[in-house]
Write a structure and sequence with these properties.
Blueprint lengths: L5 E7 L5 E10 L4 H9 L5 E12 L1 H16 L3 E5 L3 H9 L8 E2 L2 H7 L2
Parallel strand pairs: 2-3, 3-4, 4-5
Antiparallel strand pairs: 1-2
Amino acid sequence: MEPFRLDLTREISSDDQINTTRLDGKLTLETVNNFISAMRADATPRLVLDMSGVSFLDSAGVGALVQIFVHRRAKNQRFALAALPKQGDAVMTVAGMRKLMPIYESVEQARAATA
């Protein structure tokens, strides 16, 4: 059985305004606690999550994304998801999150939209 792992790779813009974090692995019940802790600690005004490396997203992962979205909105910080793989996009659609959260086809579109 493949282990549950989620690696986060941060890239901060030169003006310290945008944190683009690439997720690699599974955003699932087994990985959400570390993910939430890391994302809540981020104080940049704009956060873009590059989801292109997410191999599996479950309902706990969706809940974690909602928590981060709500947490950032309460602090007047911007948030966007980018480059969801097909499975992740299907889960977000079924959960009704496409209507709630800003989701973009590419990281570049998400960065531009959060400006």
